[in-house]
Amino acid sequence: MAFAHRGARAHAPENTIAAFQLALRLGATGLESDVWLTADGVAVLDHDGVVKRRGRRIPLSAVYRDDLPEHVPTLADMLRYCPGGFDLSLDVKDPTAVDAVIEVVREVQPLLESRLWLCHHDWRTVASWRPLTSARLVDSTRLARIKEGAERRAAVLAESGIDCINMHHTDWNGGLVTLFHRFDLYTLGWDMQQDHVLNDAFRMGLDGVFSDHTDRMMEAYAAQIGTGA
Question: In this structure, are strands 136-140 and 164-168 parallel, antiparallel, or unpaired?
Fold first, then answer.
């Protein structure tokens, strides 16, 4: 899977409908964003989760949807303006948003739920979502944070109904990919911006990558698919 990080953010303003649409036109097989809940319970897409007003940073949770800047899309609007078969990875920065996310997907693009990836940095929080959805659940972490060791983490994730682990590209090597695959877990890598990093990721067998540079990502993706790697 080739996820366009915050849309095609190297080519258009991030987390906008235009960036998501451009990413799909460039061939991305997946879109990525961060999701938050507004004061009136609307799931919206933004990275930092704040708006700036008169020099102040106000959390989205304190702002009503109608008072947000126009460029901040709702999840529902993004799904309406980006129809079609793609995977969607959402970093659920505000865990209270998960119910709204699932509801919106089921209402606007119900077939997308099986291609939805819900990510969070606390695997216990992620595990608590298992009864709610058939979406794929993702432990987004760093290797240094896995104090119990990679094999034990893999076993715990599998036992908890979590489907996937996502780490920075510098954390991955072929051995770790094989280890997590042994537990039937998907492996994702983020912050893959350079050609050689993308090529190495596909060669070592990662199941998905995240990149700002959709064009580079798709060139590497095509090269690996073409070689049968």
Answer: parallel
Candidates 123, 121, 198; CA nearest to 153 is: 123
Query: Which residues constitute the domain of residue 58?
Result: 2-227
d(CA 35, CA 92): 5
**Average pLDDT for consecutive 10-residue bins of the chain (229 residues)?**
96 96 97 97 95 87 93 96 93 96 97 97 98 98 98 98 98 98 98 96 96 96 72
Alpha-carbon distance 195 to 217, whole Å? 8
**pTM tops 0.85, yes or no:** yes
Instruction: Report the chain's terminal Cα–Cα distance, integer Å.
Output: 13
Label the pairing between strands 50-53 and 56-59: antiparallel
* Residues paired with 189 in a beta bridge: 167, 209
CATH number for position 174: 3.20.20.190
- CA-CA distance, 8 to 12, in Å (whole number)? 6
CA angle 18–20–24, rounded 5-degree value:
115
- The region that residue 153 occupies, defined by phi over 0 for left and psi between -120 and 50 for alpha, beta otherwise, is alpha
Beta bridge partners of 26: none
